[in-house]
Amino acid sequence: MADNSPIWSSGASSCASPGTPPEIRTSPPRTPSPRNETPSRRSSVDQDDHAASQSTSEFGVQHDGLAVPDRPSYLLKDSPVGKKTYHNSATFASVQEPLIQNRRRDIRLSMSDKIIIIPYDEFMATFIPPPADEAEPSERFADLDFTAIKTKPENAMYDPLTQAFNQDWLIPNDVAVATPSKPDPSVKSKQKIDGGLYRRQDAPEPMSETRWSAIELSIECKTLDIQQDPLDETKLDTPEADSKLRQDVLGQIMCYAVLVFDEQWRTHHFTLLILGGKARIFRWDRSGVVATPKFDYIEEPWKLGSFLWRFARMTPAQRGHDTSVTRVLPQSAHHKLMLAHAETPAESDDGTIVGEHARLKFKDSLEGGALWCLKVDDKECGTRYFLVGKPQFKAKGLAGRATRTYIAVDTEGKAGEFVYLKDAWRVAHNRIEQEGNILKKLNDDSNGGPVEFVPTLRCHGDVDDQVTVSQDIWRRMHPEAKPEECPLKTHRHYRLVVNEVGIPMREFRSVRELVACLAACMRAHGQAYRRKGLIHRDISAGNVLIYPRQTVVNGKTLELRGGLLTDWELAKSVHDDDDAPRQPDRTGTWQFMSASALQKLDKRILVPDDMESFFHVLLYFAIRYVTHNCLDVGDFMDSYFDGYHRYDGTFYGGEKKLLAMRLGKVTTPLGYLLVFFFPRSNPPLQPQITGSENVASHASTREVHDQADVSAGDGNANQSDEARCQDVEEDLREDSTLDTKERSTGSSQQPAASQPPSSRHAPAPLQRHPLNELLAEYLSYLRAYYSLYVPMEQKELEDFRNDQNAGSPTMQSAVIREETVDDKAEDPDFADFLRKDSVAKTPRVATHSIEISEAEKARLAVLAEKLADPEVMECLLMTHVEALPRAPDRVPDQLPPDYRPDNEPTLQSKRTRETARLETQEPASKRSRSMR
Hints:
By secondary structure, the chain is α+β, with helices and mostly antiparallel strands. Helices cover 29% and strands 15% of the residues. It contains 25 helices and 27 strands. The strands form seven sheets. Strands 3, 4, 5, 6, 7, 8, 9 and 10 form an eight-stranded mixed beta sheet that branches. Strands 11, 14, 15, 16, 17, 18, 19 and 20 form an eight-stranded antiparallel beta sheet that branches. The protein has a three-stranded antiparallel beta sheet with strand order 21-23-24. Strand 7 and strand 8 form a beta hairpin.
């Protein structure tokens, strides 16, 4: 028996190249039924033929590319949150798990202006071709009787529908099954659909649970042909209906399509929507959706009959299955190889166990899901095969990159070796490089050698000819439109494999480790800039990882957890003088983009922008995992990271982030200066800098806190931040200090006043964390940069003057001594090794006002220049590392898992679709840029 047996019993041939291993030579795959094995959860992929123009990149590599679309003709793309975010489950930093009704609304909004209606005959000819070896029985289609389906209530439609569909001549190898009552137990959201077409061997029992991992054609039933029709054919440019009920239906079927993409290896998917006596057919891919006009299947039964007959005879690839993936069956050679890697720890030459983080996560990925073999076609090293289980990360949504990542085993790799595989639908536009080509340049020996602390490329390549086609349909339907006016992107399926298996940065053990890892990522950024002429442009919490590196110290192998800067797909050459955008979005991840980039749509991303993004990343992890005086973490993250404002129909960054850069301080929602402390349960084991410099440093910080301003209406305008922090501390004492575990869930202990006298113990005073000094100095550089190089709008200038008059902070300068590294430390960590190559740099911070003198400008220029040098910023972090304790001081996540903003935002937007509509009759592609 072959190692990987066919998981599709008919359709396409199972040919393979002569060099393909025997266990790979199987028929094209489809996702199996979970009868004998729990289905795995997978995002989907898309395939269709596409002719694209050729362009040559700066790396001398020819690749498919298309013209860069102009900024889309709708407001959604200029909204606060982009597609790329740190959370697996939500698009907003403050929301960890959105409600199902909000998720449906979010998906619908994300697909705005991505819906195309084409004539039925054109839809069938393009997507549902007849088989080449069988004549279509047109006369039998005319005799089909679907009249019994049109009935009320909805649950009375299911039996007539399945009976009408389940005729052997019509769908010989499939079966229509109604599943309206029971959700798929393997899907967390517990969503269910009215019915679907399944392969006979994979079909559930009638009226049983939906099987998203096996469904071939989604079928949803509604009783009303107008009130529940999600599309309005009278609106040619944006056919989405206006009524809430009709929009809810659209969001519902879109979420069902997302589930199919998530649970199967897909290139595209079809949905049949029954609307009383009418019907529509939808085709979804990673670019958009193409639909037929609404047709009367009772008066024109041949339309529904022809669709079902042809669909039942389509190949797996035509139905939308990714044929580059094969199933790994139990007891096969590949299955045994995966188990051996999962169960056998890897050892170094001296017998030290290494790489356990990768092995344990890989082992966990094999539980409760199907196992797969993925093909990667590399132009230089040929075809490679990688074995994976469940994904480590899976992006949400329908249209977009649909990134999924896996810990994988290379079938040609060493024993105990794991690699990291990224499966995504990259944007295939001109001037956008394949990420593998960028990594290849970062890894080569040119111009000073390889860049440190970046992934090492193993192989990469596009997946067959799998390219989205919805954008081509849009262009065909809008022949008068310019190419850049198309609101749909072209996405091409792509896989990348690197040697390093990282750990999410949120699993840092101490602030010292967090800062050292970010310093390593800054070094990678600086070396890429100086040696390779590349700037990253997407610094975010998800793109900085922890990577355990093996180092031999005194003859013993140690694993030092250091930093790794990943996801270089948006990197751009600094020698590219073309400021035109390469794709119709802001570049980067909304929560971590610089405040200046969020205020200017087409701003070119420079080194200071990325250095500012590192600050936001540091603050992001600190506010969640370090003790502080902010009592409402959700509100802080919503206003600072997800904040926005709208002007002239366009969305810009929020006020809180921008003010932090202008004023050089970060405040809590109540207006207090944000201050970090050591956790009470774990006071510092290692003292901070001692001696006079310690006193000066803390005195400087105290002066900063004392002079911080107070929000209007606080009632304590004359009270210093120092005193207010003490008041907060006293309040926490009176409420009984929250246990770190309880803080992560939002619960608290019994108030101290209600406890028996013998059980009341005054907690130890909170001790300030040296992280405060690092943030203050970092902010001084940012403040200087914004003072000189980011001009204010008139209204912002007035608000800023008012804020300054209320009492702005004055940043005092303090000098840090230059430290040397103790190479003989008993327990060296990654920071010790990184500091060897870091040089302490010069003075910190300075004062400024709006009216800047020439002397002050010169001093601010010195500070602002530091922000443009990644090496200087790395040294800033490493200088402060010495004051950070080696002992763990991380606390459990302080963001409540059930936090919801007062007005929970929508995907990529903080407004409803209704409020976003513009009062204009012009088609979207013809509106002025400011109105988009």
